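Predicting holo structure, nicotinamide-adenine-dinucleotide bound.
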Amino acid sequence: MSDLTGRIAIVTGSGQGIGQAIALELARRGAKVVTNDVTGCCAEDTLAMIRELGGDGLAITADVSDSAQVENMVKTVLDTFGQVDILVNNAGTTRDNLIVRMPEEEWDFIQKVNLKSAWLCSKAVVRSMMRKKYGRIVNISSASGLMGQAGQTNYSASKAGMIGLTKALAREVASRGITVNAVAPGFIKTALTDKMPQDILEQLLPLIPVGRIGTVEDVAYAVAFLVSDQASYITGQVLSVDGGLVMS
Ligand code: NAD
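Done. Tokens:
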């Protein structure tokens, strides 16, 4: 198991679901984790779970699609810990609709929450990572961003956009000891997929070669590897965690 002792990590949207599992896994490996969510209770809940594991960190309530709130969050982390080594851009949501029924606001909202947030958080931490000549950024994309999903033109575009962001930033900062990668989960059991109609889930299951829906821990283990020292020669990549749903 990789050792993240001494590392400071920010995991956005870590009040529940995949983000919470990532925060807990990084804490188990010794990182101090800044938990973040747009709602206060959830970031605090995850920090309490980290403390129960014997770890530590900081809970920050912030909407990561808002530049002022992101700047404040990163300033607080730098004032408290003096560094940010790991950023996991996990915050995201869905507003599914067929394109003919999708209001423009649902398109704009999803680009802002899923894609712009990742750009804002990366921009806010990258200068300090450059100074330290060390950094790990992981963007949580989606199988929908790789293969497209009917009813998710907004979501699929935002998740494909995260892959472009990953590759462009990876090239910009590679010489500074900073890696930037994406993880593309398939169907993972969380509140987000619990919203999906049962018949759609039943149609999807036969498409997954491994034969099961994923767990939040499946994603967390992949992220924990990509943020480790052992992954220093991996950058600009998209790692699918989807039971074989997408094979490129
Ligand atoms: P979730 O809804 O359970 O958790 C997402 C968290 O992000 C919530 O706690 C929410 O409050 C927070 N959040 C939303 N907007 C925010 C904002 N503006 N600022 C800060 N926090 C915000 O969802 P999840 O299933 O755990 O998904 C996590 C990530 O993984 C998302 O980016 C999602 O698109 C991606 N993903 C999920 C699946 C899946 O099957 N569950 C598959 C592929 C990708």
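The beta strands are 8-11, 32-37, 57-61, 86-89, 135-140, 178-185, 238-241.
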